[in-house]
Request: fold
Amino acid sequence: MFGKANKKEALSQNFSIPHQCHFYFLWIGMLVSMIGSGMTCFAQSVAVYTEMGGSVMDLTLLAVLAQIPGVLITPVAGVLVDRWDRRWVMIIGNTVAALATLSLRMLLVSTSIEIWHLYIFVVIISLANHFQWPAYFSTVPLMVSKDKISSANGLVQMSRSVGILAAPIIAGIAVTNFKLKGVVLFDMSTYLFALTILLFVKIPKVSTNPMKMAKKFSFIEEILYGWKYLTDRRPLLSLLIFFVFANFINAGLRILIIPLGLSFGSPKALGGILSVCALCMILGGITMGIWGGPKRKVYGILSILFMQSLVLIFMIGRPNLTLIIIGLVLITFTDPILNACGGTLWHEKVSLGVQGRVLSIYTMLCAAATQLGSIFAAIMSDYFFIPLFSEDGFLTNHLGHIMGSGNSSAFCFLIIILGTFSLILATIGFLYKPLRFLDSRIPDEEHAKGNLKPIKLEPVIATGACQVRQP
Reply:
């Protein structure tokens, strides 16, 4: 049984090389779609607050609904991505998002739109996009040859950076001239552009599905299979845990950058700094696309995080605007390289037939860590460090000669703490051998040969849970 599967899988791998051209077309389509979606998100926030009389709570709820429903549906999306043709998953997701955007446009034209209508559309589009992303990300090893996977991941990271930079700038101009109606119309055209490319691009199908090798699995058991796959491979599980903590720390930094920048200058100056950072992210993605990254991807991840930790502690954590800007440039330039190295490991070390399940778990946990990291940083800054760095605060009296006082000092001190956490995480990564030697301990041949162990999941009647066992 495995012999035939191996042969088919090998054919699939060889067949992927001519599809590199198709990957670049797909990448362009998704890039344009990301820009359109980002513009609509920005324009909706502006419209809710300025045209619809919304409050800060309305903006917060809009942001939460744009993330949480999609995160919760991600494990289900991962199973369906592995079950179905990934090209059709992207087509359906793109079509649903386009229809939702069209409906939003019709409501805007009729002038009968309310804020709660936006909540509904945000949820629908979020769900559609969270089906598209694992399908898109898991097509990389199907469409490019193995030696190009790192470069392809660099391009994927670059496209996300372009969306971050271009969407607010273009949307700011469009909202001023065409209001939300014009932005939504442009977004709908980007969906149609991406859909046109998806209809003509060729994506090889996965030949080996490990779920078909074992007994018939229930849907819940298939979701659990992704977690079982990781727990059976300790190096991959350690990589997952590593990125969960890294996202927690990174989210805290992101939430602090805006108030820290405003404490030193005007909103216009902050916008300029953030634009420079986004440009550095694009350059980092381009660099990774050309270079392909280090041979030992884990070493690249750990080394970059170690360097970023030192930057947080000694540059961004200092109440000096020049040092902060230089530090942000270094971090935003190296972020796409770090993320692309991680994406390459997931593509090379996870079998094609379960990438949807595994990557959905990775996406869900990292997204949850990001939300928790943001909440942690907000609580610690507002309720602890800002009072402690007030004029007569405890830390002002003890560290004022080094850190100064006021809000900027509070933010910098919290960033130093986050940098210390990051430094500890990088050090543990170097010391923990299953993670440090992941490149060699999990061979790429497992990815190519479909060398999978079927597992049995037997129900535990007493608890109604599901127990995973090795055969």
Summary: The beta strands are 456-460, 465-469.
